[in-house]
From TrEMBL:
Taxonomic path: Eukaryota, Viridiplantae, Streptophyta, Embryophyta, Tracheophyta
MATH domain mapped to chain residues: 14-146
One biological process term in Gene Ontology: protein ubiquitination
Pfam families, A to Z: BTB, MATH_2
BTB domain ranges (all copies): 190-257
UniProt-listed Gene3D superfamilies: Apoptosis, Tumor Necrosis Factor Receptor Associated Protein 2, Chain A (2.60.210.10), Potassium Channel Kv1.1, Chain A (3.30.710.10)
Pathway the protein acts in: Protein modification; protein ubiquitination
Name under which the protein is recorded: BTB domain-containing protein
CDD domains: MATH
């Protein structure tokens, strides 16, 4: 009886996704932390794939650029995980040698866990990128070489071939900081007000308490005041306070503010001056009959 023959799977067929960045400096200013831009779609293995590029990183990585390979229909996919081998790199617009080449990863998309994307939250730091020739050109192409792999004999294990593990892209379409920023903007669920030199700002005690030990003690500590729904501050520029409040919710300063106010707000945010001092508090003004 002849021995069974073993058929080796064919080598993976690699494709390349690209995303052209024509003005890095403008893109970095326009797209805030936690937001992304995406490449055109490319179909491979019966699924649609894109690059998601976060110029200012995913939430929590503001000094980095993050990149992910994203499977458009991951949440609708049924059956086994779709295993993909991939790596990222940068090159000059129009071609050239690859730079900032990542490790090679093997990850599982879709399937039972509906993973929409895998990639690198810390692909390249702003400092590294801005010291390279790409910053002088103010443009580059993000490349993702990837191949959809055949199922490995029923095994759905996900492995990483080197150093940094592949991580799951944020499932939210926005991100925590963006969602908190929206909460501040819409004032939905606000349970307190600041009055700063006659201008009113609505806020949320839980958010402020989570971000500042001073507010945490004032709102929920043993020495908390009976009324904390109204706080008057008489010694701060309203625009600078707006910047500080925005920073507490989003870890960023609003881009639309006047330069002097942004500068003052940045100093307050970085030094923690406003978080460390207790503003003057009064009761809500009563309306005379």
């Amino acid at each position: 009886m002849s021995a069974p023959t073993t058929t080796n799977p064919p080598p993976p067929s690699f494709k390349m996704l690209t995303l052209d960045i024509h003005s890095y400096s403008k893109t970095k200013k326009r797209v805030p932390n936690g937001r992304w831009i995406r490449s055109n779609a490319l179909v491979a293995g019966g699924h649609s794939w894109r690059i998601s590029y976060y110029p200012n990183g995913i939430s929590g990585y503001t000094a980095m650029s993050s990149v992910y390979l994203r499977m458009d229909d991951a949440r609708d996919a049924v059956g086994d995980d779709v295993r993909v081998e991939f790596k990222f790199s940068l090159q000059e617009l129009g071609g050239g040698p690859p730079r900032f080449v990542s490790s090679k990863f093997v990850g599982a998309f879709g399937g039972s866990k509906r993973k929409p994307g895998l990639g690198m939250s810390k692909f390249v730091s702003h400092e590294e990128l801005e010291k390279s020739e790409f910053f002088e050109l103010d443009s580059f192409t993000i490349c993702c070489d990837f191949a959809v792999l055949l199922p490995p004999n029923g095994s759905a294990a996900t492995v990483c071939s080197a150093g940094t593990p592949a991580v799951i892209a944020p499932p939210s379409s926005t991100g925590l900081h963006a969602d908190l920023g929206s909460l501040l903007e819409t004032k939905e669920g606000a349970d307190m007000d600041f009055e700063v030199c006659g201008e009113r700002f609505a806020a949320h005690k839980l958010v402020l308490a989570a971000r500042s030990p001073v507010f945490k003690a004032d709102f929920f500590g043993r020495a908390k005041e009976e009324s904390t729904s109204y706080i008057r501050i008489c010694d701060m520029n309203p625009e600078a306070f707006k910047a500080l409040l925005h920073y507490m919710y989003t870890d960023t300063l609003p881009e639309t503010m006047p330069f002097n106010s942004r500068e003052e707000g940045a100093m307050l945010a970085e030094a923690g001056l406003a978080l460390g001092r207790r503003p003057v508090r009064t009761q809500e003004p009563e309306v005379a009959d």
